[in-house]
Amino acid sequence: MSKPLVERAPEFKLENFDLSKALPFMAQYAEVDSQGRYLHWSQLKWRVPRNDAKTIWSVIKFKRHLKAVLLPLKDESGAHFSYVVPHSMEAKLHQVIKIAGGSMGAVAGNRASDSIQQRYLVSSLIMEEAITGAQLEGAATTREVAKKMLEEEREPVDPDERMILNNFLLLKYAERIKKQDLSIDLILEFHRIATQHTSENNVTPGEFRTSNDIYVEDEKGDIAHKPPCYTKLQERLQQLCDFANADHNGLAGGLFIPPVIKAVILHFMLGYEHPFRDGNGRTARALFYWWMLKNEYDLFKYVSISKLLKDDPRGYGLSFLYTEKDQNDLTYFIDFQLDIILQAFADLQEYLQHKTQEFHQVVALLEGSRFSGLNFIQKDLLKKGTKEPGRVFTVKEIASTYEVAENTARKYLNQLAEYKLFLPTKDGRTFIYLAPADLKQRLHSAK
C-alpha cells in the first residue's frame, strides 16, 4: 500500500491537553504561522523540531479550539464540522465582501456602464464558467468551439459539448431560482440539469446513488474519501437543507456565519456527501453560486471559480483532504476557496479591461465617420468581425448573445449589411452575415 497523500493529524481532545507540557510553546505558536498560513499537521511537522512536533501541534490545536465555530453539521460518526477565522482569513474575507458587494461597473472602472454591454458581458462570462466547469470535470472541447455552440444555441454534437451546455443551463437556473429555500428537490433538480442527456458512470439525472461503490480518488489513485452510506442520504441532505435555510445573521444572539463562508461550506458538504454517481462537483459549484446570488452578491454572476480550480486541482484536493484528516476542520477548505475567489475577482477585472480596450479600439475606428452612431451591439459585432475576418453571424446567435428580440437582431445586422460592413447571404434557408476580409479597411475608409 502506498503512503497516503495526507497523513491523518493527531487527534486533539481538550480533556487530554497537558498545559504544563505545552506551556513553553504557548507564546511562540498560534493558530497560523508567521506568514498567516493555516498549516495542517502534514505541513507543520517538517517545520518544527521533530521531538516537540506533537506538543507544538497540541498547542496550535488548543488555540484553534478556542476560536472554533461549531456547526450543526456532522460526519457519519456523529462528529461535528467546525471552522476557525484567524486574522489572516479575516483580511481575505473582508476583501471578498468589499468587492462582491460592489457592481461590475466598479470592477471595470465604470467603463462598462451601458446596460446592453453589461448584459452581454454577463452572458459571455457565464459561458466562460460553463465551459471551464465542464473542462474541470473532463470535457475536452476547445473553448472557441464551445462558446460558438452556446452563442448560436446549436445542439451539442458529443458528450463533452453536452456537459458544457448543461453547465450553462445550470448556472442560468441557479440565478433564476435564487429566492427559493434549499430543498432536496432543488438539489435533485440542480443535478438533473447538470447531467441530463449524459451517460457518464451510469448516472441517472436527478436521482441519488443507490450503492456504496462510489469513492473519491486522490492524485495518486488511492481512495481519498468514502462518502456516507447511501441509505442515509435523504436524512443527511435534509440536515444540510435545514442548515442552509436557517438564519445565521447573529442579530438575535444566535450563530453568525458570513454568507461567503456559508456558501463555501455548502460547496464542501455536497462534495462530502457525494450523493450522485457523477456530477457532484458541478452540483456543488451550482449550490455555491446559488447561495451567493441568493444573498445579493450579484458580482458572483461574473466570476469563474471553475477556471482556477481547474488550474490548481492539487490545492483543491488537498483542501478537502486536510479538512477530513483533521477532525472535520473546514478552515483549510474555506481558506483555499477565499484565495480562489480573490483571484477570480482579479481575473474578472483583467477580463473587463481587455474587453473594454478591444471595444474602444473599434469605437476609435468609427470616430468621426458616418458609422459613429451605431449602437453597442453593432460596434461589438464589428469588433468581432475585425478580429475574425470571415466570421459568420446569424440572427439567432445575436438575439441569444445580447438578449434582444430576433427582430431587433435582424434589424441591427441588416443595417450593417446596408453599410456594406457585413455581407448578407444564405446558407440553405437561413440568412447569414459574413464579416469581409477587408472589414478594417472599410472602417478606415469611412473616415
UniProtKB/TrEMBL annotation:
GO terms for molecular function: ATP binding. Gene3D superfamilies: Fido-like domain. The keyword Transcription regulation does not apply. InterPro entries: Fido, Fido-like_dom_sf, Fido_containing. Pfam families: Fic. It comes from the Bacteria. Coiled coil: none annotated. SUPFAM superfamilies: Fic-like (SSF140931). Residues 182-339 form the Fido domain. PROSITE patterns: FIDO. Keywords: ATP-binding, Nucleotide-binding. ATP binds at residues 216-225, 278-285. The active site is at 274. This is Fic family protein. It comes from Denitrificimonas caeni.
